[in-house]
Amino acid sequence: MEKLNKNDFVTIWLDGQMCGIPVLEVHDVLSKQTITKVPKSPVAVAGVLNLRGQIVTAIDLRKRLKLKDRDEGMEEMNIVVEFQKEPYSLIIDSVGDVLSLTEEAFERNPVTLEPHWQSVSNGIFRLENELLVILDIEKLLTLDENRVAA
Amino acid sequence: MDDLLNEFLTETFESIEVVDLELVELEKDPNNKSVLDNIFRLVHTIKGTCGFLGLPRLEAVAHSGENVLGKFRDGEMKVSPEAVTLILTALDRIKEILVGLEQNQEEPAGDDSEIINQLNAMAEGNLHLIETTKVTEEAPIVVSDVRPSVPGEVTLDELEAAFLAAPGPDDEDPVEEAVCVNVQETVDTKEIKNEDVIKTNGSSKEGSIANQSIRVTVDVLDNLMNMVSELVLTRNQLMQISRRTGESEFEIPLQRLSQCTTELQEGVMKTRMQPIGNAWSKLPRIIRDLQMELGKKIDLQMLGAETELDRQVLELIKDPLTHMIRNSADHGIEKIKDRIAAGKKETGTIRLNAFHEGGQIIIEISDDGAGLSVEKLKAKALSNGLATEEELAEMSDQQIQRFIFHAGFSTAAKVTSVSGRGVGMDVVRSNIEKIGGAIELKSTEGKGTTFLIKIPLTLAIVSALIVESGTERFAIPQISVLELVRASGDSNHKIEYINSTPVLRLRDRLLPLLHLNKILGFEEGDKLDADSLREDFIIITQVGDFTFGIVVDRVFDTEEIVVKPVAPILRDLNVFSGNTILGDGTVIMILDPNGIASEANEAMSELSDQRAEQEEDVSRSTFDDKEAILLFRAGGDTKRAVPLSLVSRLEEIDVSKIEISEGNKMVQYRGRLMPLVLINDKYDIKSEGRQPMLVFTDDDKAMGIIVDEISDIKEDSIKVELSSKAIGQLGTAIIDGVATEVIDIAYYFERTFNNWQMGMESVQFEVKSKRKNILIVDDSTFFLNLLKPLLTASGYNVTIASTAAEALKLREKGLDFDLIISDIDMPEMNGFEFAEEVRENGIWRETPLVALSANSSQSRFEKGREVGFDNYVEKLDRDTLLKAIEEQISNHETAA
């Protein structure tokens, strides 16, 4: 059982890039939600939303990873994770399969990877057709102090 | 931590608290058997449990304490203050050990032999023996007038020394992890109070309610509260849906659900409620200690101890309250001899009173002590640089007294161990404000001081006003909303601008306004954009002494909300105090007026900097004539100018909006009709499009002058070189190297409002060979700016001063004038006083003085003559003024 879960990842898509989040960290997968914007919050914070009576802070991973914004009307999904006992919702483009991967396919981040990716990724899995960037929740949710210019 | 140990600590801390209280009680009433029994039992329990848990140090101290108490109980020894002090000291030691125990899970190392010896000696009845073996190094504290010592007993000095060595009563009490929940009505528990004290499980205050109450951890209660909050929200949601869909079969069960939910909510709230007396339980002990230490007699009266409030709130006010009581005892109540000298009773009274009032809890702390000395506070404020002498002079006593809430402010002449460290009332205030409370202060020197603390009943569920700014909705706790004002062009209230600072006139006050849109960074609130139909809502709120208005776009309903903390990632946004889910399921942020005020503070400090600069400018302009001049064109290429200070606003209007009534052009501006003025008859406005306009206002009158183009703003002096015969012009001056016509706003005002006399064949003075110097003293900047160009154009050198004090400074500097014109109604020093001063001393004794006032009644006229004015002119009568000036100056010259 323990072996089974350890290298299981939920795959997500962000601007054409496939990323993985450890399956054990994912609490919920939701369709697009109504989000209340929070003025003066860090850029990556999309706002707050109501998940069954619980207030969840939404982080737009596209903004967090400095990717271009989603086009108008484009699909988006939420992955709810918990960090320091607080729920956070990661806004992503779409969710793929859950993959069980073996250690052999694991690689460390290439040194040439951009620093802001470097800072949130734990490494990379070589898949047959693609590369899977493993995202670290804790690092994702540690925002640098870049604020929206008021 | 070990469960058993944990429980022991919780219980023991509680017991000690009770013993503390009861001992003080016992001291007052030594024959009260039931109190004594209770104390004995509690100490005994502590001792017993310590032995069981293997805590030798605690056990030894408790044992010795018990011995002494045993003697009391068996009547072998009398209850004396000395003995009580000693036992209290022992209890402090026990507390100290307990704290160490809690931190490290084992007894801290230390030597208790001294206190144990004392206790044993006391128990054996020969305490005086150790008197000889000990030498006190403490300076003796004069307490003999408080409590004469009985021969054969230990000296007070020595006891004080022992006392001082013990930890102070302000030691943090860390055990607040559990509260008692009374399962049964409290009435029941009161009836059996003091009876049936067999139960040794001294877990509750009266020792007898243990079997009717259970111990529940706060976590469980908090969870319950959260769940109920959720339930309330869901209920609200359901109710909203039900209202929308109209009649349905769900309606009746929903009603029931709603009712149950409300009751459940109230029930759970009740479990969190604790009598405020819990926060007071330490106070009698503190006061007792202070009496000894300070040599004062103090009677502490506590009323309304049963008033209940949320335990979270209770926790938060505990320390501020303690601090304030110490303050009252230390600074408030005078020493006995001072009290007698002041004709008061020896014993000072500190009264604590708590009661409910309008959904709030009011706590009143009053003492009959010395009160706050306004003079001392003034001096202190001055030396701390909190205010200037002028500012202080304008302040009411109450405002000055509020200085004690400023950081670093202590009036105690010297720092005592009790208080006076200067970190006090500001912390108290901020703590109280943190929980949405407020603190007020009333003090009469010599009579005493009363503090009034208002705090909300609970923090969890609050009533909030839902507002909109930008496209988002926000909640503002109702408790911080003083008032709601609708401001639009057609209502009584409108937003006005000083320079670019929005303000609101509300009754007799001018309130600064903050645009929520701007604070939240939604838009750069463009004030010139404000068209007359725009409607704003202003939420008047108060943070400390600072009352201000928050401008929002819309106001919705009020709603009961459950305050939830924001995620840590957003926690440093200080404009929000939390967030919540509304009845319709959306999440909204809760605004924190404190945060908004501090957010705005940066902007405000800039503003005050600016103001300071402007003030400097004014004083500079007294000697250096430079001022900001607005340059514009209107009809032809001629450059025209007007002092910028006279212009209230620059606007652009759509010419199609111009209406004509009785042959006069006017426009609807901010909900009112404003007459429009053309610079001369030859000038015509465009037939379509937009045209710039200068708006001038005086009091409630506004007038617009249509121009072609606003060209520039220049810093220069207006020196009219050529007096003009053309109407509406003061003359021509060289501004920025170009000949420029300076327009006479007074003329246009007068033509428009027929206020000034229509004497347009205005007295034209010959330009004198030598320019005369005139000083104008008037607090109205508008008038100063109006008169200055007028007089300049008439050939005088004009110096202005906006207050009498400013004028007198000029006198000290030795400036001489040919004539002084002074307003009568001025703040601080009025015109009459000014005249007296001028006539009395200094170099202006002979200078002609002309009074200028809006009010020219006969009596004032005579008063003016009396105090030394040579003439008295009505403010709006400019011909008479010019004549009077001419007359006075020539009279004076002839006389000289």
Rg of chain B, alpha carbons: 37 Å
| Measured distance between first and last alpha carbons of chain A | 50 Å
CATH homology superfamily of chain A? CheA-289, Domain 4
SS class of chain A: mainly beta
Let me know the largest β-sheet of chain A: 6 strands, mixed
Walk me through what this model shows.
The complex is a heterodimer of chains A (150) and B (896). With 150 residues, chain A is mainly beta. Chain A has a single domain, classed as OB fold (Dihydrolipoamide Acetyltransferase, E2P) (Beta Barrel). Helices cover 11% and strands 44% of the residues of chain A. Chain A has helices at 2-6, 61-64, 115-118, 137-140, and strands at residues 8-14, 17-22, 26-30, 45-51, 54-60, 77-83, 86-92, 94-100, 106-107, 121-126, 131-135. In chain A, the strands form 2 sheets. A 6-stranded mixed sheet of chain A has the order 8-1-2-11-10-9. In chain A, strands 3-6-7-5-4 form a 5-stranded mixed sheet. The radius of gyration of chain A is 15 Å and the shape is globular. In chain A, 31% of the residues are buried. In chain B, helix 3 packs antiparallel against helix 4. Chain B starts with a helix and ends with a helix. Chain B is an alpha+beta fold and 896 residues long. Chain B contains 26 helices and 37 strands. Chain B is elongated, with a radius of gyration of 37 Å. A 6-stranded mixed sheet of chain B has the order 12-16-17-15-14-13. Chain B has a 6-stranded mixed sheet with strand order 29-21-22-32-31-30, covered by helices on one side. Mean pLDDT of chain B is 74; it is low at 129-155, 166-210, 413-423, 525-532, 605-624 and 755-769. The interface between A and B is medium-sized, with 25 and 25 residues.
